[in-house]
């Protein structure tokens, strides 16, 4: 397993903000200046350089041919987008307050069977994958997060993990899923390991050499999978469990579970399902708690492109490629998709609100102003336009670089991983802030059903998805300190940049109440310069 310590207990008075345990936590907490500069600004200042497209090796394609190729690809993508939009136009008719889980899932099955977005497009045509997420997110101010989450859980987390970790036969099976309209879910999070806890996997998959099978089991109630989107209706599930061979733990591995024999049928023997209950938004989406009572899986259930069990021994097929690093690859595509979804929700909410404000007359001593002429609203609309433009460009660069890596079958480099994390945090947190301000400035319109503000918890979902914002920022700060410890502390200080100097700075006065004095400025994005 990685040497990274789990995110665990929080200090008194820290609320839900958690920090790494051990020496790294002490280093972070004793350097409030470093926390201020690393949690977000570390990457804010580096955004422009981090997101620049890496130089390519010379090719035989001339600039003119490259231009023609780019225009052709853009035309093809526009044509595809029109087809995808047409196939999803009926989503606007959904009554998310009354539709059943099965009816909502059936809409995704129908979309899946059109073949417009193939499971393999994530690796071969990633632009379609990301564009599909953006197009669906445009429905979010009216529909909330339910269908968007249903879609991304199937395509990115479930099918995407099979695509990334499965062998050739397992990947080929994705075509049958598509033809039959089989839906998948992704079972990682557990009851004792929520979004603020980091990776904790207590579900076990014990190998039996006599039967050449795995036994999937939840040893305690805390090991039940929790908040599993699409978990009540899914036909297939990728389950992350601790692989155990001869009583020894080999860490998290991915297993493919057949949840039921046929769509709508009863769960497989030993698969225990519970509804998480009603939510503030997204009640068209089923969220499940899933337990496993000695569920026997065939050998073929292990997604074994990188790790396998051979003659009773765990074999690493690709050296230097820990299996969880590969499981985590879906976090990168997911973070870009979540960042773009937050921006689309924000864009749609501002557009509909401005359309209302542009035609809402207001009293004045003279003339006939409209609501959007009010200074604070006019300023807020302008601020939002500038912020969206800046974030659209940055997140777009992250998508372009990541798409290149996906097509090439390569892992993203450190600068891209950090840029993607920043894109997710910045896009979501800034959208939460500015939509809240809009809600408070536009007046009673924000109280009306249909205004889109009732779906604002879509952004709360984005905050938690693919890495809670605060945990993600702490991870960036921790990683920065580790880079200093490993590679920079013995170099010439004359060449250190500001962040490196912060890593080397002596601890602040012992006893300084970091959590009370620095919690707010550490997470106040507006104090930092634009990127």
- Tell me the overall shape: globular
How much helix is in the residues?
Answer: 40-55%
H/E series, N to C? Answer: HHHHHHHHHHHEEEEEEEEEEEHHHHHHHH
- Major beta sheet summary: 6 strands, mixed
Q: Rounded to an integer, what's the Rg over CA atoms?
A: 24 Å
Query: What's the N-to-C terminus distance?
Result: 35 Å
Characteristics:
three-stranded antiparallel beta sheet, 11 strands, disordered C terminus, alpha+beta
What does this structure look like?
The protein has 531 residues and is of the alpha+beta class. Helix content is 49%, strand content 12%. It contains 19 helices and 11 strands. It has helices at 22-29, 32-39, 41-44, 47-50, 63-87, 101-114, 121-124, 126-137, 140-143, 146-165, 168-180, 323-327, 329-359, 375-408, 414-441, 457-464, 469-488, 498-504, 514-523, and strands at 184-187, 204-208, 213-217, 225-229, 236-245, 248-258, 271-275, 287-292, 295-298, 307-310, 313-316. Strands 1, 2, 3, 5, 6 and 9 form a 6-stranded mixed beta sheet that branches. Strands 4-8-7 form a 3-stranded antiparallel beta sheet. A hairpin with a 4-residue loop joins strand 2 and strand 3. Helix 2 (32-39) packs across helix 17 (469-488) and helix 8 packs parallel to helix 13 (329-359). The longest helix has 34 residues, at 375-408. The radius of gyration is 24 Å and the shape is globular. Residues 1-69 and 512-531 have low confidence and may be disordered.
């Amino acid at each position: 397993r990685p040497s990274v310590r789990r995110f665990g207990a929080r200090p008194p008075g820290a609320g839900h903000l958690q920090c790494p345990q051990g020496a790294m936590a002490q280093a972070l907490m004793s350097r409030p200046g470093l926390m201020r500069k690393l949690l977000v600004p570390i990457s804010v200042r580096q955004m422009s350089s981090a997101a620049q497209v890496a130089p390519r090796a010379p090719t035989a394609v001339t600039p003119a041919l490259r231009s023609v190729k780019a225009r052709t690809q853009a035309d093809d993508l526009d044509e595809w987008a029109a087809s995808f939009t047409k196939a999803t136009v009926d989503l606007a008719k959904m009554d998310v307050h009354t539709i059943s889980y099965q009816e909502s899932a059936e809409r995704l099955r129908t979309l899946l069977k059109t073949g417009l977005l193939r499971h393999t497009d994530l690796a071969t045509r990633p632009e379609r994958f990301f564009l599909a997420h953006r197009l669906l997110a445009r429905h979010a101010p009216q529909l909330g997060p339910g269908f968007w989450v249903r879609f991304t859980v199937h395509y990115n987390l479930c099918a995407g993990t099979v695509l990334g970790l499965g062998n050739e036969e397992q990947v080929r099976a994705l075509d049958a899923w598509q033809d039959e309209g089989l839906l998948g879910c992704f079972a990682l999070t557990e009851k004792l390991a929520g979004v603020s806890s980091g990776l904790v996997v207590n579900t076990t998959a014990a190998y039996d050499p006599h039967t050449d099978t795995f036994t999937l089991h939840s040893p305690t109630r805390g090991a039940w999978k929790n908040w599993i989107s699409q978990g009540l209706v899914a036909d297939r599930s990728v389950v992350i469990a601790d692989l155990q061979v001869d009583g020894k733990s080999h860490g998290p591995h991915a297993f493919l579970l057949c949840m039921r024999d046929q769509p709508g049928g009863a769960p497989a023997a030993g698969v225990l399902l519970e509804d998480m209950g009603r939510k503030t938004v997204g009640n068209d989406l089923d969220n499940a708690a899933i337990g496993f009572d000695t569920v026997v899986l065939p050998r073929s259930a292990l997604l074994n492109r990188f790790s396998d069990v051979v003659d009773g021994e765990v074999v690493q097929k690709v050296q230097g490629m820990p299996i969880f690093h590969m499981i985590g690859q879906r976090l990168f595509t997911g973070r870009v998709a979540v960042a773009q979804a937050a921006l689309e929700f924000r864009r749609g909410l501002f557009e509909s609100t401005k359309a209302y404000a542009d035609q809402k007359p207001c009293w004045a001593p003279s003339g006939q102003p409209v609501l959007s002429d009010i200074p604070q609203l006019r300023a807020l609309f302008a601020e939002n336009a500038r912020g969206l433009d800046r974030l659209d460009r940055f997140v777009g660069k992250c998508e372009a670089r990541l798409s290149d890596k996906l097509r090439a079958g390569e892992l993203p480099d450190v600068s891209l991983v950090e840029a993607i994390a920043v894109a997710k945090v910045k896009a979501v947190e800034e959208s939460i802030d500015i939509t809240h301000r809009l809600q408070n400035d536009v007046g009673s319109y924000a109280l009306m059903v249909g205004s889109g503000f009732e779906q604002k918890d879509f952004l709360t979902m984005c905050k938690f998805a693919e890495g809670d914002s605060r945990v993600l920022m702490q991870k960036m700060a921790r990683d920065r300190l580790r880079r200093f410890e490993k590679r920079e502390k013995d170099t010439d200080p004359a060449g250190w940049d500001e962040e490196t100097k912060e890593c080397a700075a002596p601890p602040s006065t012992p006893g300084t109440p970091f959590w009370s004095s620095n919690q707010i400025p550490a997470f106040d994005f507006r104090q930092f310069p634009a990127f």
